[in-house]
Design goal:
Formyltetrahydrofolate synthetase, domain 3, 20 helices, Domain 2, N(10)-formyltetrahydrofolate synthetase, 3 domains, Rossmann fold, alpha/beta, 4-stranded mixed sheet
Length: 559
């Protein structure tokens, strides 16, 4: 049997077209493309403004079951569906997130799809790309520096250094920086205090950039960031430190969507990248809304399983941006069903129909949940060569019992030829006109009730547990006018519960909220549930150990 080519080998063999040709396919003239080399470009603000009067295309969300070590292939399916829609004659684009260096050098790998359903240039996308994440890191840390500088030069705002809430960030997994003491070394270095680092994708600046509608909205939101509290407990905002203008300058290029292409030379916006377990997990509003103005079908993804990514896509991004999705694809694999059914990773290659059936409960709950948002859903079975006909049939029959349909997808091996059936099904759902999108909860519920609505309605928890300190904090924010904000649940991606080892569709548990954070600029309240890290660490054998340049100067080890 011939060896299977790696993602990077397939990407390296791609015949990419000049980015100006890709732009021309969707009506973007050369003068509105700011090229970053021959195969990447940013879209000008002038072009984005010029298409605002256009009708919107149809928005399709790709989500998934809870992730397992067996892999699901959500991004790969997103890319494959976009190619498939173009292959059946539709004018389609995809919108995905940028890759973070942290997971790329850690354990998760890149975020450009895989096999013959990839976005290219793969190496560029998984490394520095167009510098957006570096700009976000710099803007975030400029605010940190200006905050400490304000305290050093007299502290006119009477900031209580014990109540500085603004941490620093870097785009790397580095557990040593989670909790630090800064300003040591004497009078010349400032006032010592406890601090820490988050990963850049957890930064509120990242969330703001991904939710902003234009450069003016970006600066307003940056100014709304709460960085600390005064001795009288009143908040200190970014604009009080006078950092919002300079931060906007650092982000003036980063806010413009990036245009690249799939292996089949179809257009793709790759922009923004908030994590889905500790942030809202969607690509930028500007990329999505611009794509909707220039394409008939826009396929986008939301991070991790539907309990995190899809819920936040609907309740935060769609609510904030006024988006109305027309259909949802829930990605599942036979391998993941078997893992949910109790099969060890090393045993997934052997046929086990009973394990497939046992593991389907997780998928069933996601199907039920999507229906609550009023959007029709189809299950995309991401095919692996080890899947047997009996296993695929068992999965398909389960989906049918849930009142939905499953479509076998072979895009990893065959590109758009492997997703034409899924593309036709998506078009059928959209043209059926049954979508009637609505968020899970209303704006007027209390913040705690919103958390409980998600915990009970999506996770199937019996309730939410929070101590008096958290309840008092939520009440204080409501009194300050933040009560209408949506909530962003930060929890493990591996389970409906806060226990990453509890797979399937568990019931009979409560959801512990151990911390709440106000992201006033982004416009949501974060509820940290269970043990979730905003600065991940590297695994015992990080991917970085295998990433290197070969003798030909090519990058090896990226995946």
């Amino acid at each position: 049997m011939a060896s299977v080519k790696s993602d990077i080998e397939i990407a390296r063999e791609a015949t990419m077209k000049p980015i100006m040709e890709i732009g021309a396919k969707i009506g973007i003239n050369d003068q509105h493309l700011i090229p970053y080399g021959h195969t990447k470009a940013k879209i000008s603000a002038e072009f984005i403004k010029s298409v605002q009067g256009n009708d919107d295309g149809n928005l399709i969300l790709v989500t998934a079951i809870n992730p397992t070590p067996a892999g699901e292939g959500k991004t790969t399916t997103t890319v494959g569906l976009g190619d498939g829609l173009n292959a059946i004659g539709k004018k389609a684009m995809i919108c995905i997130r940028e890759a973070s260096l942290g997971p790329c050098f850690g354990m998760k790998g890149g975020a450009a799809g895989g096999g013959y359903a990839q976005v290219v240039p793969m190496e560029d996308m998984n490394l520095h790309f167009t510098g957006d994440f570096h700009a976000i890191t710099s803007a975030h840390n400029l605010l940190s520096a200006m905050l400490d500088n304000h305290v050093y030069w007299g502290n006119k705002l009477d900031i209580d250094v014990r109540r500085v809430s603004w941490r620093r960030v870097m785009d790397m997994n580095d557990r040593a920086l989670r909790q630090i003491v800064c300003n040591l070394g004497g009078v010349a270095n400032g006032f010592p205090r406890e601090a820490g680092f988050d990963i850049t994708v957890a930064s509120e600046v990242m969330a703001i950039l991904c939710l902003a509608t234009d450069i003016e909205d970006l600066q307003r939101r940056l100014g709304d960031i709460i960085v600390a509290y005064k001795r009288d407990r009143s908040p200190v905002y970014c604009r009080d430190i006078k950092a919002d203008g300079a931060m906007t300058v650092l982000l003036k290029d980063a806010i413009q969507p990036n245009l690249v292409q799939t292996l089949e030379n179809n257009p793709a916006f790759v922009h923004g990248g908030p994590f889905a377990n500790i942030a809202h997990g969607c690509n930028s509003v500007m990329a999505t809304t611009t794509a909707l103005k220039i394409a008939d079908y826009v396929v986008t993804e939301a991070g991790f399983g539907a309990d995190l990514g899809a819920e936040k896509f609907f309740d935060i991004k769609c609510r904030k941006a006024g988006l109305k999705p027309k259909a949802v694809v829930i990605v599942a694999t036979v391998r993941a069903m078997k893992m949910n059914g109790g099969v060890a990773k090393n045993d997934l290659g052997a046929e086990n129909v009973d394990a497939v059936k046992a593991g389907c409960a997780n998928l069933g709950r996601h199907i039920e949940n999507i229906k609550k948002f009023g959007v029709p859903a189809v299950v995309g079975i991401n095919h692996f060569i080890t899947d047997t006909d009996a296993e695929v049939e068992a999965l398909s029959e389960f989906v049918k019992s849930q009142g939905a349909e499953a479509v076998l997808c072979k895009h990893w091996a065959h590109g758009s030829d492997g997703t034409k059936d899924l593309a036709n099904k998506v078009v059928e759902m959209v043209e059926g006109g049954t979508a009637d999108f609505k968020p899970l909860y209303g704006d007027d519920l209390s913040l705690f009730d919103k958390m409980e609505a998600i915990a009970k309605g999506i996770y199937r928890a019996d309730g939410v547990v929070a101590d008096a300190k958290i309840m008092n904090q939520l009440k204080a924010w409501e009194d300050q006018g933040y009560g209408k904000l949506p909530v962003c649940m930060a929890k493990t991606q591996y389970s409906f519960t806060t226990d990453p080892n509890m797979r399937g569709a568990p019931t009979g548990f409560t959801l512990p909220v151990r911390e709440v954070r106000l992201s006033a600029g982004a416009g949501f309240v974060v509820a940290v549930c269970g043990e979730i890290m905003t600065m991940p660490g590297l695994p015992s054998v990080p991917a970085a150990e295998s990433i290197m340049l070969n003798d030909d100067g090519q990058i090896e080890g990226l995946f």
